[in-house]
Design goal:
Layout: H1 3-19, H2 23-30, H3 34-42, H4 49-58, H5 63-74, E1 81-84, H6 89-102, E2 105-110, H7 121-130, H8 135-148, E3 159-165, H9 167-170, H10 176-189, E4 195-200, E5 214-218, E6 225-229, E7 233-237, H11 240-256, H12 260-275
Parallel strand pairs: 2-3, 3-4
Antiparallel strand pairs: 1-7, 2-5, 5-6, 6-7
Helix pairs in contact: 1-6, 2-3, 4-5, 7-8, 10-12
Length: about 280
């Protein structure tokens, strides 16, 4: 399943839930089986743009939102996904969320910021406030980000392996208190068997991570995918050769990274140093 198809499935499910319509009721309105709607919502089948347009009409969705979701359906089969400019980012966020839900493992290189799946609520909020987002959007995005953490704490959690640049821990986002809480939250999450964090210190020389951050998703029932997110653009890539290269990059960055045990000790050292500055 492509990232666009995952985003489309999430959009269909969200629209139905927000409208308060059951899957059976929606299937009756469309003259389709309940199983078909269920398969659309889980991504097992990809509806045609015409079917999506009919579904949205039945759910009362019109205007720009309808055009956005129909556009997702038109391109759902395209493997790689590039968007430029803020209008494309919400769709990509939906794709990222669905990739997280479906993944069996995530490998992430984050040189400058603590990744979303490790962020505390206060850190996420401070980050968005620093980016100048309006208050109502900050709260909405914060709630989405916090809900995403469920994938590492659920009954059958995914494996999360984060390769983290030391600058991400030392550059202060929010107050000292926010940072100390964030740092100790990482150490707490590292106690879980499914969460591994390794720091990469400055001065280790060249490694593939110097070219920028990335996320590699591995799925139990689909090919792996790589996601790049930038300030106002992003891309999903599923080309087999490209994805293989990023798997190799994970190995190479891991070779210059500290062990998880040494990482935990350094995180606590930075937390104590930050705490002393209150």
């Amino acid at each position: 399943m492509t990232p666009r198809a995952r985003a489309l499935a999430a959009a269909i499910r969200t629209i139905r839930e927000e409208c308060g319509i059951s899957g059976r009721e929606l299937s009756k309105r469309l003259g389709m089986s309940h199983g078909t709607i269920s398969h659309w919502e889980t991504g097992r089948r990809v509806p045609t743009p015409e079917d999506v347009a009919s579904l949205l009409t039945a759910a009362g969705v019109t205007g720009a939102e309808k055009r956005r979701i129909v556009d997702l359906a038109k391109h759902a089969g395209e493997p790689n996904w590039l968007t430029v400019g803020m209008p494309g980012i919400p769709q990509q966020l939906a794709g990222a969320v669905e990739c997280e839900r479906a993944a069996s493992a995530i490998y992430q290189w984050a040189p400058m910021l603590i990744p979303g799946l490790l962020q505390t609520t206060d850190y996420a909020r401070a980050l968005m406030r620093a980016a100048g987002l309006p208050p109502n959007e900050i709260e909405a995005r914060t709630m989405v980000r916090i809900a995403r953490r469920e994938v590492i704490t659920r009954k059958r959690p995914l494996d999360l392996h984060v390769l983290l640049g030391e600058n991400a821990l030392r550059d202060r986002i929010g107050s000292s208190e926010v940072m100390v809480d964030q740092l100790r939250n990482i150490r707490e999450l590292m106690q879980r068997d499914n969460v591994t964090v390794q720091l990469v210190r400055p001065g280790v020389g060249w490694h593939p991570g110097v070219l920028g951050p990335f996320v590699l998703y591995e799925f139990p029932d689909a090919p792996s995918a790589v996601h790049f997110e930038h300030f106002s653009s992003g891309a999903f890539v599923v080309d087999t050769d490209d994805v293989h290269e990023y798997g190799h990059a994970v190995d190479l960055i891991g070779r210059v990274a500290m062990s998880p045990e040494a990482t935990s000790e350094l995180i606590e050292e930075i937390a104590c140093s930050t705490e002393a500055q209150w």
